[in-house]
């Protein structure tokens, strides 16, 4: 429980650090870099889904973003966990997690398209780029952590 709480709090702090860039058609959420933790243990799926729901309470879209953003996080972190559960090399796990989480940015782009009536493809591109940037930075940090800390326990 403590690890779940710690990751949830860390995600919230990192997301709120860049609050103006954490919501909308152009998003840069540093907390998304923590999505890589799910390739080490499934408990982080809950932590990150909860963190996303809490962060999205401050979204201009309100409850809609809480529902769809949390659903996206649940899906993408679950897929990352499932895809990498038998992969041994940490770099492969992080790469697969980066690709799968970036891919699922289409859910948020679709949400914004229907709610805010903004074009889907440009929105998907900007959200995916922000996600990719956060995930690449997160991959470097998580990889460095794995050299010192066993994240699987």
From TrEMBL:
Ranges in coiled-coil conformation: none
Protein keywords: Membrane, Transmembrane, Transmembrane helix
TM spans (from-to): 44-69, 90-109, 121-145
Entry annotated with the keyword Membrane: yes
Pfam assignment, any one: QueT
Superkingdom, taxonomy of origin: Bacteria
Protein name (Swiss-Prot/TrEMBL): QueT transporter family protein
């Amino acid at each position: 429980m403590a690890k779940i709480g710690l990751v949830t709090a860390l995600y919230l702090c990192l997301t709120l650090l860049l609050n103006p860039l954490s919501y909308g058609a152009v998003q840069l959420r540093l907390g998304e870099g923590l999505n890589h933790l799910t390739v080490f243990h499934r408990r982080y799926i809950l932590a990150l889904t909860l963190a996303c729901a809490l962060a999205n309470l401050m979204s201009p879209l309100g409850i809609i973003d809480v529902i769809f953003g949390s659903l996206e996080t649940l899906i993408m972190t679950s897929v990352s966990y499932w895809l990498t559960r038998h992969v041994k090399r940490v770099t492969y796990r992080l790469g697969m997690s980066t690709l799968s989480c970036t891919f699922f940015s289409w859910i948020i782009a679709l949400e914004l398209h229907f709610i805010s009536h903004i074009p889907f493809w440009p929105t998907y591109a900007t959200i995916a780029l922000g996600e990719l940037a956060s995930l690449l930075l997160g991959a470097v940090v998580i990889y460095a952590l794995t050299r010192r800390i066993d994240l699987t326990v």
